[in-house]
Write a structure and sequence with these properties.
mainly alpha, Growth Hormone, Chain: A, membrane, transmembrane
């Protein structure tokens, strides 16, 4: 069965299985904190200050990653991928555990909560970069799409299960202990990364290919992207896509719970349908053997826009749920395919810097999008905001298609000497000896596949 044969080599390798399992546990912890952080902020806030503290806490749990990516790049971009992921995991584990202990002893104050959450996220852009750089190092090129799809799918599953687990945990033990559990999940991730890195470190040093572009680990990720129009265009497309998703996150709760739409439990059904669809779509595309990434990414953006347009016509709730599930299935492949494209087009020595720069840029998209969505929902009906987001996303997709086609025409006119590499994500195989060394670090079974939030 092609689907199973694609993922079997990944799941039978003990090192990859442990690593992917640890990714899933830490993603579950982050999904729990999505609920626990606002609940804890409300609990410790001064009277009349809950809204401000919730906003500051949620922002502190994400935005400092932008600062960390820009300020510490001079030193961190020289570190191996496993060291980046381990450093971020240790910092998050320590800070989130400190939040839980301070809350348990009754000494947690609003300023302390914001400071600890901000410190915990300071290196998270580098941690994310280390995660997908490590996967690229462990997997041969034709297995990266499948590996990235598994990693992205665990994140989607975690965002379904995490809030539900956090709701129960906060009711039984309190939100502080839920955040402490998130800290423990990162401690587990750090231990697994450390043990896997010890096992594969000699193989990675032998298998690491020479960088044909001459890029060094100290190369700025943003500077590298500016010199690669295809990768820069992918970053712009992803940023705009995430920006236009922001109003959806604001308008959907108002649309679902407003008027005669029913109870707040229905909102969970929408996001559950989206998450399950994202898992199904991501794993299905990850099983494909050959894939041209640019058309897939453009199709995802365009088809997602069409999913939102019917909301403007007031369809029944059942139809909206089906649309949102289909939307998740359409969106599901986007993270894995985009990561695989970056891994295949970026020299290994520059990959962590490029991925950290990507994370830093994308961290700014969702806050801007939600900030735009707030005023829009005060002027327009939430259903019209959803449809408007779809229309704007459709315009984005059409613009991106025109830019991509124009780039291809210019490449042809400029001649083969200047033509940028295109084609399927699966990269040309290295020499036989090197391929055996690369494959040995990931699995003993020759694989057949290739793959690639997050909004």
């Amino acid at each position: 069965m092609p689907f199973l044969s694609t993922y079997r080599p990944l799941l039978t390798d003990s090192r990859l299985r442990r690593l992917l399992g640890a990714f899933g546990v830490s993603d579950l912890g982050d999904g729990m904190s999505v609920v626990a952080v606002p609940l804890l902020a409300i609990e410790i806030a001064a009277p009349g200050q809950a809204g401000m503290l919730v906003g500051a806490s949620v922002a502190a749990y994400a935005l400092p990653g932008v600062v960390g990516a820009l300020v510490f790049g001079r030193w961190l971009r020289r570190l191996p991928a496993a060291s980046l992921l381990l450093t971020d995991s240790v910092l998050r584990a320590a800070c989130l555990s400190a939040v839980a202990l301070a809350w348990a002893f009754g000494v947690l104050r609003p300023a302390g909560l914001v400071a600890l959450l901000g410190l915990s996220s300071l290196l998270h852009a580098w941690g994310s970069a280390g995660k997908f750089t490590l996967l690229a190092e462990l997997l041969p090129p034709d297995q990266r799409l499948a590996g990235n799809s598994l990693a992205s799918s665990t994140s989607s599953l975690a965002m379904i299960a995490g809030p539900a687990v956090a709701g129960v945990g906060a009711a039984v033990a309190g939100p502080g202990w839920v955040i402490g559990a998130d800290g423990l999940s990162f401690a587990l991730l750090g231990l697994v990364v450390w043990s896997v890195h010890r096992e594969v470190r000699p193989d990675l040093h032998r298998a690491r290919p020479a960088d044909p572009t001459g890029a060094r680990g100290s190369t700025s990720g943003l500077r590298f992207l500016r010199g690669r129009p295809t990768l820069l265009g992918l970053l712009v497309l992803t940023w705009a896509f995430n920006l236009l998703f922001g109003p959806v996150e604001v308008a959907l709760p108002l649309h679902v719970t407003g008027g005669d739409r029913g109870h707040t439990e229905l909102l969970g059904a929408y996001w559950t349908a989206f998450g399950l669809g994202a898992v199904a779509g991501g794993l299905t595309v990850g099983a494909l053997r050959r894939l041209s990434p640019a058309p897939v990414l453009l199709a995802v953006v365009g088809c997602w826009s069409l999913i939102l347009l019917p909301f403007g016509f007031g369809p029944p709730t059942a139809v909206e749920l089906v649309c949102f599930g289909l939307g998740g299935m359409i969106y599901g492949p986007f993270p894995a395919v985009s990561y695989t494209l970056l891994q295949s087009r970026t020299p290994p020595a520059a990959l962590s810097s490029v991925l950290a720069a990507r994370s830093a840029v994308l961290l700014t998209a969702a806050p801007v999008g939600t900030a735009i969505g707030g005023p829009l929902t005060s002027v327009l009906a939430p259903a019209h905001v959803l449809a408007g987001s779809g229309a704007a996303t459709l315009l984005l997709a059409l613009t991106a298609v025109l830019a991509w086609r124009g780039r291809r025409i210019l490449d042809r006119l400029s001649g083969p000497g200047r033509r940028s590499p295109r084609g399927p994500v699966t990269a040309p195989r290295p020499p036989a000896g090197e391929d055996r060394r690369r494959t040995a670090t990931a699995t003993h079974t020759p694989p057949p596949a290739s793959p690639e939030r997050s909004r």
